[in-house]
Design brief:
455 residues, alpha+beta, Heat Shock Protein 90, 3 domains, 5-stranded antiparallel sheet
């Protein structure tokens, strides 16, 4: 029993990533927004509190006069009754150097500790902890009253308890509101993630349907964002199906090609024919040619399926020419064209294709072989021309010569499978090979077109 294939390493959950991103951004934005809103609201509440103190201070200054004794007094009573209640939380005090302090009755036996020796032409506000257990908000301003040369310091103070309670209540509301908002946003992000990734489950079911029903394509309606993935999957399935069909075809062709030689050998052996040995040798050579042909096709298909193949044309041509020159030292070889072109063909297959074609030109030509790289004008293909000065091939025979075992010159050694293998391998890589007449040398012109890899 075959062991189950190992699953590829996981890169983590998409849903977890989306939720982590959502949680991080929601937390950051809520924190930043909460701090900004807290700063704004508490600032507004504090300014309102300070404005109330400012109104009181303005009323004090507007009601102050200098009496006959040189001391300050109010020509009308202040409206807030808290100034009359001891320890009420609202206090005032008027002070000048050389004069007796005039505190509010709410101070009772206490006094406001106001720094001396400075003149505040504009209202000056600050926090003070001079009263134990009662933080104060203090507003002071220096005034020169008519009829007096003294610098009178008007001070009004209020307990911060109400202000702190308001700020505390506001912050409590903000915290609970933002917590509820954050939880709601996270729940919404979770629902969005679940609903957004739900179509991937359709893809899983569609792929499972392929395996269980034998369907060859994913045809279920899916979201547009998933369609490219499904298209690639369908192309992969088509590619796999095409490879399987090619494999079945190759196997059938090979079986059919071997069936006749095996039958001949078996009949000769059964009849105990006197030329059995010659028959076996002859038919074994036929079977060997067929096996070589199909193995070459199988290797090309296998290399193409591995991935994007690539080979530099010029180095492969130079290597092939060095080998052919040793076999045909009397022939002259010329090489010209683009030295930088790269084709989408495995290097070993490219050298086998070029070797077959150049060797044929040297074998059947008149002694001159001219190879031109990138002779065509199609930017998608590299066209290689191989010309010789031989007798050429009649136009009526140029198609038949690519058939397995076809040979026009039986006087020279060969199997007749070289061009057939070349055609099959070239077509596997998406190229073409054609025969024509060479205008320059007068012999055969082979036009080999191979898919190019852009530089």
């Amino acid at each position: 029993m075959n062991a189950p294939a190992a699953r590829p390493a996981s890169t983590g959950s998409l849903a977890r990533r989306m939720m982590l991103i959502a949680a991080g951004w929601i937390s950051f934005l809520l924190l930043a927004g909460g701090l900004a809103l807290d700063h704004t609201v508490t600032g507004i509440v504090t300014r309102n509190f300070d404005e109330q103190l400012g109104y009181v201070l303005t009323g004090m200054i507007g009601s102050a006069e200098i009496g006959p004794d040189g001391e300050v007094f109010f020509i009308r009573p202040l409206g807030d009754q808290r100034f009359l209640e001891p320890n009420s939380g609202l206090y005032y005090q008027i002070r000048a150097k050389g004069h007796e302090d005039w505190p509010s009755r709410s101070l009772w036996d206490r006094s406001l500790d106001v720094p001396e020796g400075h003149f505040d032409a504009q209202p000056h506000i600050y926090d003070s902890d001079q009263f134990a257990g009662e933080p104060l908000r203090v507003l002071e301003r220096s005034i020169i009253l008519p009829g007096s040369n003294a610098h009178w310091m008007f001070t009004v103070a209020a307990s911060r308890r109400d202000l702190n309670d308001q700020i505390k209540m506001i912050r409590s509301i903000l915290v609970y509101s933002f917590i509820a908002l954050g939880v709601g946003l996270l729940l919404m992000a979770g629902m969005q993630t679940w609903y957004g990734l739900f179509p991937l489950r359709h893809v899983r079911r569609a792929i499972q349907k392929l395996r269980t029903t034998g369907a060859s394509r994913v045809t279920d309606p899916l979201p547009r964002e998933v369609e490219p993935l499904v298209d690639e999957l369908n192309m992969l399935l088509a590619h796999t199906e095409r490879q399987a069909e090619e494999a079945r075809t190759h196997a059938g062709n090979l079986a059919h090609a071997l069936k006749t030689p095996l039958t001949v050998v078996m009949n000769a052996a059964t009849a105990k024919a006197p030329d059995l040995a010659d028959t076996v040798i002859r038919e074994a050579a036929v079977m060997r040619r067929q096996v070589d042909h199909h193995l070459a096709r199988a290797r090309a298909v296998g290399r193409r399926a591995v991935g994007m193949s690539r080979a530099e044309v010029w180095p492969s041509l130079e290597a092939v020419l060095r080998a052919v020159e040793r076999l045909y030292p009397q022939a002259r070889f010329d090489l010209d064209g683009n030295r930088e072109v790269t084709v989408a063909v495995e290097k070993q297959d490219l050298e086998e294709i070029l070797g077959n074609l150049i060797e044929n030109s040297a074998k059947y030509g008149g002694g001159s072989v001219f190879v031109t790289v990138d002779a065509g004008s199609d930017p998608r293909f590299c066209e290689i021309w191989i010309e010789d000065d031989g007798l050429g091939i009649p136009e009526a025979e140029r198609i038949r010569i690519f058939d397995r075992g076809a040979r026009l010159d039986t006087g020279k050694p060969g199997t007749g499978l070289g061009l057939a293998i070349v055609r099959d391998v070239v077509e596997i890589y998406g190229g073409t090979v054609q025969l024509d007449e060479s205008e320059d040398l007068g012999g055969l012109l082979v036009k080999l077109r191979l898919p190019r890899i852009a530089a």
